[in-house]
Description:
The chain is mainly alpha-helical and 138 residues long. 48% of the residues lie in helices and 8% in strands. It has helices at 13-22, 37-41, 57-68, 72-88, 96-104, 121-133; strands spanning 2-5, 27-31, 47-48. Strands 1-2-3 form a 3-stranded parallel beta sheet. Helix 3 runs antiparallel to helix 4 and helix 5 crosses helix 6. The radius of gyration is 16 Å and the shape is globular. It starts with a strand and ends in a 5-residue tail after the last helix.
Amino acid sequence: KNIVSIKEAGGNADRVSQLRAALGGKFSILCGDDSLTLPFMSVGAQGVVSVASNVIPREVSRMVNAFAAGRVTEARKIHAKFYPLFKDLFIETNPVPVKAALAMMGQLQEEYRLPICPMSEVNRATLRATLKQCGVIR
């Protein structure tokens, strides 16, 4: 099965349909931005290439599966709960916020190789507050 990123369609629903038609409908379209997963699924994407799933894998899976199964209200509630996290995982260059979040969760040692550097203290505080708000950490 071919997988085509929603970026190939430029986020345009008509372009999504054109790509599907051109390829005979034999591929999956995946969103490339956690915060846009549900809007893209509403116009034909089947899922997401997720950054947030490194931090909250079960929740991202539940959101995507709920939407795909027609449980839109459930999917929207999950999306709304974690939307601040979806945004804050890009408060600095990827993968810095993901590694910082995982370290705050006790999942790994926060280490970086140049040219990647640790998060600024201001952004670290913002990310920590968001993780707490979303119930990921205490």
